[in-house]
Write a structure and sequence with these properties.
- 69% of the residues lie in helices and 0% in strands.
- By secondary structure, the chain is mainly alpha-helical.
- The longest helix has 37 residues.
- The termini are far apart.
């Protein structure tokens, strides 16, 4: 099979087709995958004429890297947009909608006098004044009178 960038005197139709399919596969991988500088250099050498200047190979590789990054970003944006559309169609609330709902619930709870746990706030109960000092003195009197 003919390799990219190498000339074969009389390549068979199968070799030509396989080379083109391989070229398309590599271009697709460069678009979707993370194209490394080494891989970009390899692809640039394959697409250019044999014996191309190093500067031309380097420029072509840099252009391919930039192209790959742009296409990856476009693909990512397209996927994110499609996910948003599908989620909206399913009726799933967005994070902003959930945040607004939480805020509204807190406001309603405050207005209804509820705590964050959902319990009603109760006014502080007035506890009767303790008569501990009186009880102690009564207890002391009984103990002292029992000794006498």
């Amino acid at each position: 099979m003919a390799a990219i960038g190498m000339l074969v005197a009389n390549p068979s139709p199968t070799e030509v087709t396989m080379t083109r399919v391989d070229d398309m596969r590599k271009a697709l991988e460069a678009t979707i995958g993370n194209l490394t500088p080494a891989r970009a250099q390899e692809l640039a050498k394959g697409f250019l004429e044999p014996g191309a200047a190093k500067e031309q190979v380097a420029k072509t590789a840099a252009d391919m890297m930039e192209w790959s990054q742009r296409n990856r970003q476009r693909l990512r944006s397209g996927i994110q947009d499609e996910i948003k559309v599908q989620m909206r169609q399913m009726g799933v609330a967005t994070q902003d909608e959930l945040d607004a709902l939480r805020k509204r619930v807190r406001e309603l709870e405050r207005a209804a006098g509820m705590t964050a746990s959902g319990r009603k706030r109760t006014a502080a109960k007035k506890t009767p004044a303790k008569r501990a000092s009186t009880r102690k003195s009564v207890a002391k009197k009984t103990t002292t009178s029992g000794n006498a």
